[in-house]
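[09:14] KT: can someone run the structure on this one? pasting the chain below
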Amino acid sequence: MVKIHTKAPEFNLMNENGESVRLSEYAGKPVIVYFYPQDDTPGCTTEACNFRDDYGTYSDLGVKIIGISPDTVDSHLEFKEKYHLPFSLLSDPDHQTASAYGAWGKKEKEGKEYEGIYRTSFIIDQQGDIVKIFEGVDPANHSREVLDEVRKII
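[09:31] RB: done, structure tokens below
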């Protein structure tokens, strides 16, 4: 797991349009990177739509938002279009980026163990340092929680 006040791991992932996106492209801007399990599922839709609904405020503060999951580029495009999401969704099919951020690992559901995404978010400052980590987030309240922190930090 990465730690606060360390450099955020660089990534180079494909967005919903099949374009390569690197974290370093956002240098000089604060960024929210949030990891979520799966497109178009109840919790992930709630979380994404709340970020969408608060997007104007994030934008006014100069903050960029990036969602990352193991879903395909095509799945991201459908999800983004269906819910009119104004931010990039990046595909991490081999979960290397999620692993680098400590957002991938063993989980358990109904007595079965499996590997998957930990719903985790990061506030990355203008210098590329992690300044806040949110683990085990509540999708319904997460955007507001992040926004409250961004206002303290930025």
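[09:33] KT: thanks! The first strand starts at residue 12 and ends at 15.
[09:34] RB: yep, looked fine to me
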